[in-house]
Design goal:
The complex is a heterotrimer. By secondary structure, chain A is an alpha/beta fold. Chain A contains 11 helices and 12 strands. The two termini of chain A are 27 Å apart. The longest helix of chain C is centred in the middle third of the chain and has 18 residues. In chain C, 43% of the residues are buried.
Chain lengths: 321, 386, 327
């Protein structure tokens, strides 16, 4: 297991300032546990507000953990992080090996910097920096790997198209020889005809550099294609976990069933009882989906379901399964 | 920069501002060379002498020259010209000795009438004051304080604003709250009274160098909070941009994130704040000096000049040339404002350079030509898109 | 048959921006919308799909140059007086745009939005009447407690709800044509399916003519009768949806369909089909067929001139491709 997430929770304050009480909070990720095998590509799907991005960013070290543990078993070192760990330490230890790629390359690449500066700005401060010459050589190697010309150091992000920019942000992550790539909606800002290029690139890179992928997307067909394992998130918890094929062909949780049958060109399996999800301003004490679920009974309303093992590598959090 | 120069062509006022500021700053830097006399030199026979430069006389023919004058009426201080006493103004000639910037000795002036022999008719481009000191020389020397105080003060308050605004915006939370309340405290106190208070706390009897320093510091202290709030707002929004998060995730140290990633994004705003802020500080110094709390004799600034000379309407009515420092002050502040405006427009991505409207005649001619050409082409002259 | 034609777009060219660096958004589009028909326009960013549909609104904008004709019931919109054009927009058209949260004024309550919309057509409508009609419309788009919800402000609704309200608003004055420009792109999959179902239901019930724009070809196929595939400012293929999806003629449509991950496809078994290169820059579109630099079949002919629109057999299936004609 290269990543082990145990009972991870994160909530955000709604307001900031000296005199605001910390009471009104948004519970984004609520007691989530999962583990990712080495070399696996692990997908997280969910709607907006499901907590998938927060979970990804927690693993990347963007936020402090509220409670729970995060464990990385990398080839060289093992790390363990919990709510006590300071962010700077977290980033220093794991930062170079766990890389996060953003959704929109237009905003994640500093528009005022040249490609060289973009690639080296973070690399310079890592322990791997061995001078500009060395770094340039490495960058050129990466460029050939991702299919970019090697003479682009002096250009700026605005000189490139969306697909090329996303390649550059992948290159930036690869500078650190990462073991884990966290891809947060990396193709959703791209045109359809470019999407497949990037998806293939990611699949190739994974093979060649033996990466572990954490792939976050709301696009079900993309996740089903690129992932081995899929976790379906809703309302801050994981509702279902299983192999890509199992999830897309035989979903067990009513939400997953509804989600997959809502794809364009299909007919939804049932009608939801409500159009809106539960408020996330309170801690969950029920199934997050109960008010939309047509099969919900009393238990769903009063008790939060936990992930149960159904078959090998298949877990569902539903009282009915 | 190229865009700046290009757009100057379309904004005559901004172009004029750039030119006049360059001239003023050039004069300031080479004050010893530009000014014919030292600012404290008194020509006792020529107090309240009007500006007098002539282009023609019978004796010397055409050319820049001065004519000697004599006091006719000591009560109303009217001068009469003395016939036949003329002297040519020599350019780049040797005159009064000086030390450029305090250490390079020299005696060449842009223009002077002084001769090595000693006897000469002095030249007063802007006239003289009640003690017979050359106003032009005093204005040029005075710009040393008036034109630099704005730059120094904005530099200090900008540095404070970037530091405090940057920290408040980046870290947020309690630090942000405290720093912003501090800034608001400064904004709360009316600026002028704060200046007066601070100035009177320090002794008013000090040498000009020290009082210059004190004034600059006071002005910067009054100036920073507004700037800091603006910078804080920008930093606050920029720090949420993905590329900043990206840098943070990569372990770039916080200081480097602020300096290398966030501050460069605010440069366009900073440049605008800078150019628009300078005239405020120049005016601040003038105000202080005008109230007698700034630069005092024998040191000279535009503010102290205005304070000394523009004291009463009568004084100005009798000796209208004494208003010249005020005009220069106005030109400077307006120029900075015009340039600031231009830079603001240029740095605004939503700003579209207005096309200079074509004159009606030109449009008419174009229309006619198009019609004629269209006619000969056999009515194919309809322009795509009408 | 002729009477059925609501809108006809003829040889539409739209160019934006500066004369020195024009952006060629649309470069010759012909389109016909019959009453009760749903046309779906598919294309990637910058292909001109939104600009084409917004030509129906006949808005004059600075920096926008339009040539060609847009006919509404045989009348050229460019020839209408400003007043009549406004009237046409208010009565004949409804618009559902992409980002519902940005389309509402945050300080207007939903009631106010409806009131404004009704007042455009009936300036003297009473408050009671506004409420009654608004409630009916909200019920139509399946919003619960419509009376109370009318008092609420946009921020109190979720994206899906706002999109429903937007649909209600766009139908408030009983338009004949509904333009839905990426109406579900900002929404989640589950919400999307509900909104699409609602739109489809309303369309068939009210016999609306609709132009549905999306980058998702599956979604467009779900909604519309006719599919128009646009690329680089021109239409590359157009026809009934079964024909376009089943008997694809344009290489671009073919590639687009291939490049999407399909059910059961996984990176372990097979690579995705990729289209090389990038979407053309509308500032300097490629000469000839806009897809030629990326097309796997491209030959020298392709980059010489934009191919003609060809009818496949005697169906209403049209395409632009030089090479297919020889097959």
């Amino acid at each position: 297991m290269i990543i082990r997430v145990e009972n991870l929770s994160k909530s955000f304050k709604l307001k900031a300032g000296l005199f605001t009480s910390g009471k009104s909070r948004v519970y984004a990720v609520d007691d989530v546990s999962l583990s990712v095998k080495k070399g696996e590509s692990f997908g997280i799907v969910g709607e907006s507000g499901s907590g998938k991005s927060t979970l990804a960013r927690l693993i990347a070290g963007a936020y402090k953990i509220d409670s729970g543990r995060l464990e990385f078993n990398l080839t060289e070192k093992n790390f363990l992080f919990d709510s006590e760990t300071r962010l700077s330490k977290f980033r220093k230890e794991s930062g170079n090996r766990v890389k996060y790629i953003f959704q929109d390359p237009a905003s994640s690449l500093n528009p005022r910097m040249s490609i060289e500066e973009i690639l080296f700005s973070g690399y310079k401060y890592s322990g791997q920096w061995k001078g500009r010459e060395e770094a340039r050589k490495k960058a050129e190697k990466i460029f050939s790997l991702i299919g970019m010309a090697s003479n682009i150091f002096d250009k700026r992000p605005s000189d490139f198209s969306g697909g090329q920019r996303q390649r550059i942000s992948i290159a930036r992550a690869l500078m650190f020889d990462p073991e884990i790539l966290i891809c947060d909606e990396i193709v959703s800002a791209l045109d359809l005809s470019i999407q497949s290029q990037i998806l293939n690139l990611i699949a190739d890179l994974k093979q060649e550099l033996s990466l572990t992928l954490l792939f976050i997307s709301h696009d079900l067909s993309v996740v089903s294609y690129i992932c081995d394992t899929i976790a379906v998130m809703y309302g801050g918890i994981i509702l279902e976990l299983g192999s890509s094929e199992q999830i897309s062909t035989k979903p067990l949780h009513p939400y997953t069933q509804f989600l997959y049958s809502s794809m364009p060109g299909r007919t939804p399996l049932f009608t939801e009882t409500s159009n809106q999800g539960l408020s996330q301003l309170e801690k969950l004490h029920s199934c997050p989906y109960f008010n939309r679920c047509p099969y919900a009974d009393n238990k769903c309303r009063t008790e939060k379901p936990q992930l149960k093992k159904v078959s090998d590598g298949r877990e569902v959090a539903c009282w009915r399964v | 920069m190229r865009r700046f120069i290009k757009s100057l062509k379309k904004r005559p006022m901004a172009l004029l501002s750039v030119i006049s500021l360059s001239v003023l700053y050039f004069c300031m830097i080479f004050a010893e060379f530009i000014a014919p006399y030292s600012p404290t030199r008194k020509f006792e026979d020529y107090s309240n002498h009007p500006p007098l430069v002539r282009l023609y006389s019978k004796e010397l023919g055409f050319g820049l020259q001065v004519q000697n004058c004599e006091l006719a009426d000591p009560i109303s201080r009217e001068y009469v010209r003395i016939v036949g006493e003329h002297q040519k103004i020599r350019l780049f000639a040797r005159g009064e000795k000086y030390k450029m910037w305090g250490f390079i000795p020299g005696n060449v002036h842009l223009f002077t009438t002084q001769t090595p022999s000693g006897e000469f008719i002095p030249v007063f481009l802007f006239g003289t004051d009640s003690l017979g000191r050359d106003i032009f020389s005093r204005v040029v020397y005075g710009s040393r304080i008036s034109l630099t105080i704005g730059l120094v003060a904005i530099a200090i308050s900008m540095a404070l604003a970037i530091l405090i605004g940057g920290i408040a915006g980046y870290f947020g939370g309690t630090i942000d709250w405290l720093l912003m309340r501090l800034a608001e405290l400064f904004i709360l106190i009316p600026g002028l009274y704060l200046i007066l208070l601070l100035r009177t706390i320090f002794s008013s009897k000090m040498d000009s160098g020290l009082s210059f320093m004190i004034i600059t510091v006071i002005l910067s202290f009054v100036g920073w909070p507004g700037l800091a709030r603006m910078i804080r707002g920008m930093v606050h929004s920029i720090k949420r941009e993905d590329f900043v998060t990206n840098a943070r995730l990569e372990g770039v140290p916080t200081i480097a994130v602020i300096v290398r990633f966030i501050i460069p994004q605010t440069t366009s705003l900073l440049v605008v704040l800078l150019t628009l802020g300078i005239p405020g500080f120049i005016l601040g110094e003038t105000t202080l000096s005008y109230l007698g709390l700034g630069i005092v004799d024998p040191a000279v600034s535009w503010g102290s000049l205005i304070n000394r000379e523009a004291v009463s309407v009568h004084n100005l009515l009798d000796f209208p040339w004494l208003i010249i420092p005020l005009i220069l002050l106005m030109i400077t502040t307006l120029s900075f404002n015009f340039i600031g405006d231009l830079i603001r427009d240029l740095s605004d991505p939503y700003y579209i350079q207005p096309k200079r409207p074509e004159s009606r005649i030109l449009r008419g001619v174009k229309w006619l030509v198009a019609r004629v050409v269209g006619f000969f082409k056999g009515k194919k002259g309809v322009v795509d898109g009408k | 048959m002729e009477n059925n034609v609501l809108v006809e777009i003829k040889k539409l060219h739209v160019t934006f921006g500066h004369l020195a660096k024009p952006v060629y958004a649309v470069r010759g589009v012909d389109l016909r919308l019959e009453s009760g028909q749903v046309i779906g326009i598919v294309g990637e960013s910058g292909c001109g799909k939104s600009v084409t549909s917004s030509s129906l609104f006949a808005l004059d904008e600075p920096n926008k140059r339009v040539s060609g004709q847009v006919l509404y019931r045989g009348e050229d919109l460019a020839g209408l007086s400003a007043k009549r054009r406004v009237e046409y927009r208010r009565k004949a058209l409804g618009l559902v745009s992409q980002e519902p949260s940005l389309s509402f004024d945050p300080i207007f309550s939903i009631y106010k939005c409806f009131e404004e919309t009704f007042r455009l057509v009936e300036p003297k409508i009473s408050k009671q009447e506004v409420t009654d009609r608004a409630v009916k419309l909200l019920e139509m788009v399946e919003i619960s407690n419509p009376e109370q919800r009318l008092r609420n402000f946009p921020h109190q609704f979720s994206g899906g709800m706002l999109q429903r309200i937007m649909i209600a608003l766009s139908l408030a004055n009983n338009p004949e044509i509904l333009v839905a420009d990426e109406p579900t792109t900002a929404l989640d999959v589950t919400t999307q399916s509900k909104i699409i179902a609602l739109l489809k239901g309303l369309q068939s019930k009210r016999k609306l003519a609709m132009i549905f724009i999306s980058h998702d070809i599956n979604l467009v196929a779900d909604v519309s009768d006719m599919i128009v595939v646009m690329y680089g400012g021109i239409v590359l293929e157009q026809g009934p949806k079964d024909e376009v999806l089943g008997k694809t003629l344009s290489p671009y449509t073919e590639d687009l369909l291939l490049a999407m991950p399909k059910d059961g496809q996984n990176y372990k078994q097979e690579r995705l089909y990729t289209i090389k290169g990038a979407v053309p820059d509308p500032q300097n579109p490629p000469s000839g067929c806009p897809y030629s630099p990326r097309c796997k079949f491209a030959e020298a002919v392709c980059s010489q001139k934009i191919p003609e629109f060809v009818q496949a057999g005697d169906s209403s299936h049209y395409y632009r491709c030089v090479l297919r004609r020889h097959q």
